[in-house]
Write a structure and sequence with these properties.
mainly alpha; elongated; 0% strand
Length: 86
């Protein structure tokens, strides 16, 4: 069981409790993301809101669906790279 009670999270958010690596790893495990993803996303910004929504959607996918999405995203990224060349 992971202790990620909302009052504990609120204390971290307000600065009343230091964010420790172990707690960050516990949170990441709950959300099924890498710990670094929790630090890089700021939902208060437009880009951060989009990234947070993407992470929530990703969490609902099966491994097969995640593999399909990665292939699609890589193909889109390559297409963008190709269009920048010419």
């Amino acid at each position: 069981m992971v202790d990620v009670h909302q009052t504990k999270i609120a204390r971290v958010e307000t600065g009343k409790r230091e964010l420790r690596a172990g707690f960050l790893k516990d949170l990441a495990r709950v959300f099924r993301v890498l710990p670094s993803a929790l630090l890089e996303v700021n939902p208060a910004t437009k880009d951060g809101e989009q990234t947070a929504s993407m992470l929530l959607a990703w969490n609902g996918l099966t491994n097969s669906q995640r593999n399909d999405m990665l292939r699609m995203m890589n193909a889109l990224s390559r297409a963008n790279d190709d269009s920048d060349v010419g």
